[in-house]
Amino acid sequence: MFPKLFSWFFVVSIFVNCNSVFALSDSKKIDIMQKEMELIKKQFQSMMKEINDLKKENADLKTAVDKSHTMQMNIQERLNISVTSDEALPEGSTFIKHTVNPFGLRVSASATGVLQCSAGNNPQDTTNAEGSFDLVFEGDVCEGGMFLIDIEAVENDGPDSVLGTYSGLNDDAGSTDRHVDVLEAWYEQTLFDDKFVFTVGLIDISNYFDTNEVANDETTQFLASAFVNSNVFDAPGNGMGIRGSYSFTEWLDLHLGLQSGDEDGDFVFDRVFFISGLDFHTNFFGKSGNYRMYLSVHGDRHDAHNSDENDESVGFGFSIDQTITDKITTFARLGFRDDQAAESETEWAWSTGIQIAEPFASRPNDMIGVAIGQTQPNREVVPNLKRTTFDYDSDGNEQNDYMASIETLTEMYYSFQVSEKFTVTPLMQLVFQPSGDAHEDAMLIGGIRGQFDF
Questions:
Q1: Are the C-beta atoms of 178 and 155 separated by less than 8 Å?
Q2: How far is Cα 386 from Cα 165, in angstroms, rounded to an integer?
Q3: What pLDDT, on the 0 to 100 scale, is given for residue 324?
Q4: Where are the alpha helices (DSSP H) in 90-189?
Q5: C-alpha to C-alpha distance for 81 and 105, rounded to whole angstroms
């Protein structure tokens, strides 16, 4: 473009100057034209110098940008920075955001608050507030290997501290005493192209067995313990153990787990909880489904009057979730365990229900859940009622005069997403024959749960 402009400038300059010198003598004309040519030549040289300076500045800028990009890539590679926000957590977990620092440590947190009040159970009606806070640290140790530490703070019991149901009305509740616990601290390694994975350390065995897509998380789904896991799932609390999974195909997984039956770790090898499971993953007519089963042996079910006498408890169960439509998913559980074990208060239990996603077009992230289930007390172990906070019914009769009956629980919730990080869930529970008391009126428990993830 600059050569063209210069050409036009040169022609015009010559034309103007020629007109001005036609009236002069030839010698003077020649001198004037020579001077004009010299001036034009200097102007051209100055313009070309400016163009070359601009080219050099542009080349220097490009070199600086390339060098900066190279330095950035080298720093990321040396510090192993991984900027991600949707990495997978153990099943049943609720943490949705991760903060990544230059050392590869990921931190996630979650806070849950629940308020529940009961009606129809005078004089034992109660209002309970409970809260928990979880802080999870993750980090990559090597290729396919990672560690996780989950620290939880819990304060207050739920309504079961007074009402005493078999089903458990608040699975997030902990203790009336404020306390902080290390829930999990384990190392996990994947092998054989991610077909085999094992986890060792302080684990929660229920994260890997009797799981369910729509009924397995008390902070985002059903709150009652009977819908988080089967009421006869005989796993001990979090303890030292190891578990492994192998994926034979896309539709079949094998799971094995071994954990200390004593949560305190005093008897790690002589009172062992063993469990095995098979998971079948289906896709009938384009609708996904999971069909899981487990078989467990609990070695810490000892005689209540003689802790040295072991009485092993055997249990098995099924957990199913099946997508029906793009918005509706059903679930069902069925479980049994040995009714002769000295500490098995429940004998069998079943539950079923549905989850509805996007109930309204304007609320794409909301959910509705409805469930019902029953629990049979173990009459070999608990021949009478379970009531612990009072001894007489409303008519003044002794509770122990009645044989424990089947307890029925229903729950319905609406999960309302206020923002990406905050969800509010109004819920309602109805218990028939609470604690197996056929003479007790049905109890209605209303509540609201707040869940904050960050």
A1: yes
A2: 8
A3: 96
A4: 160-163
A5: 10
Digit-coded pLDDT (tens) for 16-37: 455 554 445 566 767 777 777 7
Four-residue CA torsion sign, 90, 316, 292, 416? negative
114-128 residue pLDDT tens: 999 988 777 677 888
Among residues 354, 352, 321, 349, the alpha carbon closest in space to that of 337 is found at 349
How many whole angstroms separate alpha carbon 178 and alpha carbon 452?
20
Q: Which residue bears the tokens 């819990």?
A: 154
Per-position DSSP letters for 361-418, written without gaps between them: TTBTT-EEEEEEEEEEE-TTT--B----S-SB-TTS-BGGGSB---EEEEEEEEEEE-
DSSP classification of residue 435: G
Which H or E element spans position 9? helix 2-21
Q: What is the pTM of this model?
A: 0.72
Q: Are the C-beta atoms of 367 and 246 separated by less than 8 Å?
A: no
Lowest mean per-residue pLDDT among 116-130, 281-295, 318-332, 384-398 = 384-398
**CATH number 2.40.160.180 is the correct assignment for the domain at 99-453:** yes
Residue 25 near residue 40, CB atoms below 8 Å: no
Tokens (6 digits) for 148: 């996780």
CA separation for the pair 136, 99 (Å, rounded): 11
d(CA 114, CA 125): 17
pLDDT interval class at 423 (50, 70, 90): very high
